[in-house]
Design a protein that fits this description.
With 257 residues, the protein is α+β, with helices and mostly antiparallel strands. The chain is built from seven helices and eight strands; from the N terminus they run βββαβαββαββαααα. It folds into two domains: 4-100; 106-256, no CATH class. It has a five-stranded mixed β-barrel with strand order 1-2-3-5-4. The relative contact order is 0.16. Keywords: Kinase, Transferase. One of its GO terms (molecular function) is kinase activity.
Length: 257
């Protein structure tokens, strides 16, 4: 499924609890979206992680808000009084990433909520696959909306790609930080869901997801000749990690035990 492309028409409000200062904006379809800024401190790599991991989550049929590409005009900065917000908008002019805003959604509370064990197992598997370091009790990055769990904020996943040269030797490495996953206590079916999860991600699906990452986000100091070469490296890494998934699957099972 291709990502829709919209234009931000109005800056509504900042979400200051996010490390990269995301904001609620209105799109030219009159919908509200949480905008992740390319000019934030984490840079375009965070948007790449959001797009790829979000696409993988959709392919795995995990619950998450729609992801869109969103053009941002630097002129929107003129309507904001906060100099920090002005600078962020100006630095992010061009193509950014948005996520459907879920009005009234509550942060997931591991004390109050009792997630379904199979869903918890699928989410733990997914986060171990994508090396997501940011789904902990301190920062679950999940919302509950109309009684349903939604995954948000994958900017800290795929952490291997920071300063990456395309090497795939570490693709089969277990994900030790899965021990801190907020859903691990409920994830008692990781081995059971593993075959189905992997079967949903053939190389063609992974390549299609990675292929939707805009060229603008793949420009930078990394050791790649061009965006196409970088995309091919992402696909190779992810497919090799799937082929060697026993490492991260067994690590998650051991962590829970």
């Amino acid at each position: 499924m291709s990502l829709r492309r919209l234009c931000a028409t109005r800056y509504v409000t900042p979400l200051r609890e996010g490390g990269s200062m995301p904001a609620v904006v209105e799109g030219d379809d009159q919908g509200l979206y949480v905008l992740k800024f390319r000019g934030a401190g984490q840079g375009p790599k965070a948007l790449v992680a959001e797009a790829i991991s979000g696409g993988l989550a959709r392919a795995l049929e995990l619950p998450m808000p729609e992801i869109v590409l969103m053009d941002l005009d630097a002129e929107l900065a003129r309507t904001e009084g906060d100099p920090e917000i002005q600078d962020l908008i100006k630095a992010s002019a061009g193509l950014n990433l948005g996520m459907d805003y879920l009005p009234g959604a509550m942060n997931f509370d591991p004390v109050a909520e009792q997630p379904d064990p199979e869903l918890a197992s699928r989410i733990v598997w997914f986060d171990a696959f994508t090396s997501n370091v940011d789904r902990t009790a301190r920062n679950p990055n999940m919302l509950v909306w109309h009684g349903r769990l939604y995954l948000i904020d994958h900017g800290a996943s795929l952490y291997f790609h920071h300063g990456w040269d395309g090497d795939t030797k570490q693709a089969g490495k277990p994900f030790a930080l899965v021990r801190d996953h907020v859903l691990l206590r409920w994830a008692d079916r990781i081995a059971d869901v593993d075959p189905d999860m992997a079967s949903r991600l053939p190389e063609a699906v992974v390549a299609d997801i990675v292929g939707q990452v805009p060229d603008e986000w793949l420009q930078g100091p990394d050791a790649f000749a061009d965006p196409a070469t970088q995309r091919a490296a992402y696909v190779a890494y992810l497919c090799q990690r799937l082929a060697a998934r026993e490492g991260f699957v067994q690590e998650a099972i051991r962590a829970r035990a």
